[in-house]
Amino acid sequence: MAVEGLIDVGWLERLRAVTDDFVEQSRSLTESNVIFDLDVGHSASEPRLRRLSSPTDLHETYWSFASASPLVDVVVDLLGPNVKFHHSKLNFKAARGGEEVKWHQDIQFWPHTNYDLLTVGVFLEDVEPGMGEVGFVSGSHNGPLFDLYDGNAWIGALGDADLSTAGVERASCPIGRAGTITVHNCRTVHGSAPNRSNRARPLLLQTYAPADAYAYTDLVKRSPHGEELIRGEPARWARHDPRPCLMPPSGAYRPIFASQQRED
User: Fold this and answer.
1) Which of 233, 207, 209 is nearest to 81 (CA)?
2) What pLDDT sits at residue 261?
3) What CATH number should be reported for the domain holding residue 74?
4) Is 5 left (phi over 0), alpha (psi -120 to 50) or beta?
5) Mean pLDDT, residues 143-155 taken together
6) Of the residues 105, 115, 172, 259, which has the maximum number of CB atoms within 10 A of its CB?
């Protein structure tokens, strides 16, 4: 689902300003760290980022947006009155080749007791065709959950044999002006091509869970806002979907870009 122009100019200006500050901070880096995931060709003179990890942990503007902006009303309309925040990320998709994100589903990275988690993306800039826009396979959240391993290696992407089953050829790729949002379920198959344009395509992503969805992993254990209730009442009972869920590797594992590209 995509809704064009939902986020107003005031929020966009605040988000862009703090994002520009983090891009400036990245100029001094020569390799990725737990906050900045650097893209190929990153330098002090031309910063190129793949991701800013957990932005809501890094600056109050990101947290205020994720917890108190119109996004929360959208999520409550879809999930019900009792909602928790799970995590956030900012994918930059640098100009002239920003790396692809291979087809995948989200929930295998952070499995929960049920499948009602949603991720809301926000276009921080206008998105046009050819900018590596995200493609979503409509209805795939009702289909199979795919294996994101290659043998014993976690790759965080569908294998070649599963791509035809997943229906990626019929994916829709929303475009729109800055402030447009996308919403997808945690089982939705999605991915994005490299950015062939001369402009970056920053996409701010926030994931929310119903209060009765509980994580099987400790991915956000150290986050000051992970699992924080942002609307309604806490759950007294966990709700369990009977369908099984693939588990990621135990312990720490690499971000999606590094896993998919099989970086050492």
Assistant:
1) 233
2) 65
3) 2.60.120.620
4) left
5) 96
6) 105
Q: Which tokens in the block code for residue 183?
A: 């919403």
Identify the three-state secondary structure at position 1: coil
CA distance 242 to 146: 16
Segment 69-94, tens digit of pLDDT: 999 999 999 999 999 999 999 999 99
DSSP type of residue 10: H
Return the pLDDT at 211.
98
CA 247 and chain centroid, separation: 18
Per the structure, the complete domain to which residue 60 belongs is given by: 2-260
The residue type found at 126 is: D
Look at strands 83-91 and 118-123 and give their pairing.
Answer: unpaired
> Which 8-state DSSP code applies to residue 25?
H
Q: What is the pLDDT of residues 209-238, one digit of tens each?
A: 999 999 999 889 889 999 999 999 999 999
What is the torsion angle, in degrees rounded to the nearest 10, for the CA atoms of residue 239, residue 244, residue 246 and residue 248? 30
Buried b (16+ CB within 10 A) or exposed e, 171-200: bebbebebbbbbbbbbbbbbbbbbbebebb
Domain count, the chain: 1
Cβ atoms within 10 Å, residue 100 = 17
Contacts of 46 (CB under 8 A, 6+ apart): none
What are the beta bridge partners of residue 229?
84
Judge whether 179 and 120 are in contact, CB under 8 Å: no
